[in-house]
Design goal:
Strand order of the largest sheet: 6-8-9-11-10
Structural class: alpha+beta
Order of helices and strands: HHHHHEHEEEHHHEHEEHEEHEE
CATH superfamily of the domain at 317-460: Histidine kinase-like ATPase, C-terminal domain
Largest sheet: 5 strands, mixed
Helix content: 55-70%
CATH architecture of the domain at 317-460: 2-Layer Sandwich
Shape: rod-shaped
């Protein structure tokens, strides 16, 4: 299944609706046999009528031309054989002269064998139109006193006729019983069809290439990649879809840029009054109510820092080919320098295009969460399920399964499930999931083998 199909879910109830409408199960089976790609289905649309035409043409030719021609040729040979038999039985001419005339006029190499017995007919195992038609024609002319052999000689057919005291043995060239135009017709028909199919396939492939490039551009944009060099091409409908996609991309980028600018501007502007408030509180002393206000101001500063970090996560950083092993090693080293206990295991060196700073922020947030709510963090990196999988496990208190999606909403903190003294603004997992999805991946939460929470990052390769 392609990555484009993975991102679209089947609407609920579609299968039930199809069954309620009485769609036969065999249609589902046939659908599974059909090609999934547009090129494969287009080729099938071209190929099926072509094959059907070939079958109908071959059947009509076989029934009308080949069968009729073979029957008439067989009747001609049977008439010549009957003429030779009658002349031999009449006794009006010497046998040697009759055999001479049969060879030079009728192309029948004949021989008389005194006292020989009539053998049985020999025919191909799979049957033969030539054998059947010749046998029928001779039966009408001579009755049941003959036998034919269409197998022993590659270029001739042997005909034996019982004349009483003598056995007449004749060799007949297959050219007298078979029309070469049969093969010529079939070769021309099949050859021309193959040429037409190849031409149609190449043209269709060019048309499908434009759709494939549009799909690749959409996937690249979904991962945050640059669409340099992409332009509408192909048929008018494909060009229209590509132009609509480019307009949609521009609108999305403008919307993200406007939201990011507003969020960053508001967060930056709030720093000035907060700074004045901190100075004024510092001059008021250390009364209990003053300490409470100072804590509120610190909390607001952390929230503003979270706003700015969230805004930076939606910035215009481009994806670059990155040595993931080296980048993750530096991230883990920074976490260890700050006192975090992180166990790192990478299965193999991995290189792929990433937004380096966004990925660093994403993984750092996951490590900080693990260290903040637990004592030990395990980091596992490897290739799984057709992509890059990163598992971050901690031994903390975990998050209830029914509330795991809730923590991805901005500024949500589940104090009853995690340590309330750890601080934070509730944007860490939100930023991490946004970064994962900007790369075309996903971030999910699950139970950890260490007893706490498992964060699973997956990026397509």
């Amino acid at each position: 299944m392609s990555i484009y199909e993975d991102r679209f879910e089947r609407p609920a109830g579609v299968d039930d609706l199809s069954l309620s409408l009485g769609r036969p199960e065999r249609l589902s089976f046939l659908k599974r046999l059909l090609p999934r790609g547009f090129l494969g289905r287009s080729v099938l649309i071209l190929l099926l009528p072509l094959v059907l035409l070939q079958v109908i043409s071959a059947w009509v030719f076989y029934d009308r031309h080949y069968d009729t021609t073979t029957w008439r040729l067989a009747q001609g040979v049977a008439g010549d054989v009957e003429m030779v038999v009658r002349l031999l039985q009449s006794g009006e001419m010497p046998d040697s002269e009759i055999l001479f005339l049969a060879e030079h006029i009728f192309w029948l190499r004949a021989e008389l064998i005194p006292g020989a017995e009539l053998g049985e007919s020999v025919e191909p195992r799979l049957g033969s139109i030539l054998h059947e038609r010749l046998e029928t024609a001779l039966m009408e002319r001579l009755g049941p006193r003959f036998s034919i052999d269409t197998v022993s000689l590659p270029r001739d057919v042997i005909i034996e006729v019982n004349l009483g005291r003598e056995l007449l043995v004749m060799d007949v060239s297959r050219k007298r019983l078979f029309s070469v135009t049969t093969y010529i017709f079939l070769m021309w028909m099949v050859g021309s069809s193959v040429v037409l199919f190849v031409v149609a396939f190449l043209v269709m492939r060019i048309q499908v290439r434009a759709i494939t490039r549009l799909a690749q551009a959409a996937d690249s944009f979904g991962r945050g990649g640059d669409l340099a060099g992409f332009k509408p091409e192909g048929a008018d409908e494909v060009r229209q879809a590509a132009a609509a996609f480019l307009q949609m991309r521009d609108r999305i980028k403008r919307q993200i840029q406007q939201r990011t600018t507003v969020l960053a501007g508001v967060s930056h502007d709030l720093r000035t009054p907060l700074t004045r408030m901190k100075l004024e509180l510092a001059m008021l002393g250390n009364a209990p109510e003053i300490s409470s206000l100072k804590q509120d101001v610190q909390q607001m500063e952390r929230m503003i820092d979270g706003y700015l970090a969230f805004a930076r996560g939606e910035g215009g950083e481009g994806a670059k080919l990155t040595n993931l092993s080296d980048l993750i090693g530096r991230i883990v080293a920074d976490a260890r320098r700050e006192g975090a206990a992180v166990d790192l295991h990478m299965e193999q060196p991995i290189t792929l295009p990433l937004k380096r700073e966004a990925f660093r922020r994403c993984l750092t947030n996951l490590l900080v969460n693990g260290v903040r709510y637990g004592n030990m963090v395990s980091l596992r990196v490897g290739l799984r399920h057709g992509g890059l999988e990163i598992l971050v496990d901690d031994d903390g208190s975990g998050i209830p399964a029914e509330r795991r999606e809730e923590v991805f909403r901005p500024f949500v903190r589940l104090e009853e499930s995690r340590n309330p003294e750890t601080g934070g603004t509730g944007l860490g997992l939100t930023i991490a999931r946004d970064v994962a999805r900007s790369h075309g991946g996903e971030l999910t939460l699950d139970d950890s083998p260490l007893g706490g929470l498992r964060a699973r990052l997956w990026f397509p390769i």
